[in-house]
Amino acid sequence: MIETASRPPSDASAPSTIKLVDADVHAVVPSTEALFPYLSGHWREHVQATMFKGPVENSYPRFAPTTWRPGTETSGSAPAGSDLGALQRDVLDADGVDVAILCCTYQIDSLHNPDAAVAFSQATNDWLVAEWLDRDPRLRAGIVVPIQLPELAAREIDRVGGHPGFVQVALPARTTFPLGNRIHAPIWEAIARNHLVGAIHFGGAPGTPPTPSGWSSYYFEEYVGMAHVVQSQVVSLITEGVFDLHPDVRVAVLESGFTWIGPFLWRFDKEWRNLRRLVPWVRRAPSEYVRDHLRFTIQPLDAPASDAHFLEAIDQIGSDNVLMYASDYPHRHVSSPARLLDLVTPGLAERIRSGNARDLYGLH
Amino acid sequence: MPRHVVAREGEIPDGGRKIVEVDGRSIGIFRVAGDYYALLNRCPHQAAPLCEGRLWSGMTVSDRPGAYANRADVPIVSCIWHGWEFDLRTGQSLCEPQRLRVRTYDVFLEGEMDGQSEAGHEAVAPEQSLVATTFPVESDGQWIVIDVDRRPAISGTPRRDR
Questions:
Q1: Does B63 sit within 8 Å of A274, measured CB to CB?
Q2: ipTM
């Protein structure tokens, strides 16, 4: 039950050839029909006979300005992010990315039919393997799971977790119960026994209100508020003892901002001193769990205008091992990661570009 | 001899406390399971009257999420303002034992000169402003005496909330 140290960094005497890891790019399922090769005859016929659309909830409205950046349009009706060739052209080749981690936010969690949820998560993972991972050795991916069915989600993690391309399990930020809740115990056990990372991503469609304070009126509120949803997940993971039960498990927090981490940890640590007695298995300051177990991608980059203030916000995180470079392709953000990478020390820039992701995902 | 009579034997019931003024300092005398402890009545966090806080039956510990156990051998007082917990024996904060301590004092029953003083209570914490004070307590069977020879380690302004 004693916390182990973070995974050792790569051997400094043998510089890695991996110089840039994009820890958050998206693979979008373009249509239900795209999964037909990976669905059983039953489900193909079901879709065709009933017009069942599969998961139609979408945290990224198709033409919201944040959903796609100019130039990412694909031919025909396919949404941005659904074409491997475009990803290769726009990100992997353009930015010189050595490894990119695919996050598919296909909202299996919106399916109330448990059999459909399992069938569509299996099909999505098989689609990711066949049409992405097997076609470009630079790619890795997160396993898509029916999180509303934790035992079956664990079974899916066990089914495909041995594929070397799968390095994490994609978990939506919005959930019916927070991710640390014991209802999710089978998922964390499966993540631990398959030596995977848990990856909390923007969005989720559990059917509950999209913000911690209820039903918001506008997409704008949901979009801004996702940072608060993620913060409540971080509180849950640490408070419920996920990292005490699974000392080797690490969690990547994707696309949720990072400049809030410092002030958030001030509050988290302060209240732990007051209320520690209620959760005595939390034996270290929450900030220590965060620095040891959590990693955050840098896009969106919610930076203050002043470089001095920006550097303070980075310094307040209290560790060089927390941030990971990401483009969040094809989503559009107005801030360039270059501003961050140019501002910090060369050593920290190297940790952000690749070092932290290499250690997290065991990339060599 | 900076020893001060602070109470009659039997005056402080088990689980009780008495807050006294000694040389201008407010000090809480606690009795837990027959043992006496003396603690400077000043929280190293924001200088609250720490000894007015709740005295717990022990330290709540756990070996896994969802499991609770009580270490009755670790008497705990929690600060009246923010609930920070301190080990009465050593003045150490449970949250940051390496850097946050309240000074304790030896408490003697007269005739038991070894008292219940805790070794190490002179240990210097990295930040003096976060350390408070324990005192030796003794009793002769009639009077409770504390020894304030060991000066409180704290000085200066209280640290603001962090």
A1: no
A2: 0.81
